[in-house]
Backbone:
């Protein structure tokens, strides 16, 4: 039986027929998220603009994994902390590792407040945003950027 720890990010390159007959045990709480990428990475995809999260806020954003198909970042903010304006130049999936109450402000100044639970996820295209943690608890999010043509 495979056991996963909360917040774990793993990569398994698929080729040919890919399946698992394992019994997954995640314990209480959310289930694991699996992302199936069926196309190879696009070699001309450029990651790393001037507002790249790893450049503008290397204290709070960390690189978890990068290969030809994805780049996975982790954002950790303390209570009432903010991440400055940053940019995702690729389509990306945001997965909540903690419960969240955040305000995001776009580059044109539009702000929105959203609450998410552990395990919630959201797809977004390229975007620029500032993020404010509105709670007295730490915030943690995984961001999976896709380097594929879809």
Residues:
């Amino acid at each position: 039986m495979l056991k996963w720890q909360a917040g774990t990010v793993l990569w398994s390159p698929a080729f040919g027929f890919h399946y698992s007959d394992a019994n997954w045990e995640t314990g209480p709480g959310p289930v694991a998220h699996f992302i199936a990428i069926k196309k190879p990475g696009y070699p001309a995809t450029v990651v790393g603009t001037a507002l790249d999260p790893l450049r503008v806020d290397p204290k709070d954003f960390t690189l978890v994994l990068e290969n030809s198909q994805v780049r996975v970042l982790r954002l950790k903010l303390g209570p009432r902390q903010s991440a400055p304006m940053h940019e995702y130049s690729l389509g990306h999936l945001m997965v909540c590792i903690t419960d969240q109450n955040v305000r995001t402000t776009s580059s044109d100044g539009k702000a929105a407040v959203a609450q998410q639970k552990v395990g919630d996820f959201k797809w977004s295209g390229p975007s620029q945003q500032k993020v404010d943690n509105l709670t007295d608890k730490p915030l943690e999010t995984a961001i999976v950027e896709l380097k594929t043509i879809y």
Summary: Residues 20 and 106 are 40 Å apart (CA to CA). The chain has a mean pLDDT of 81. The longest strand covers residues 70-77.
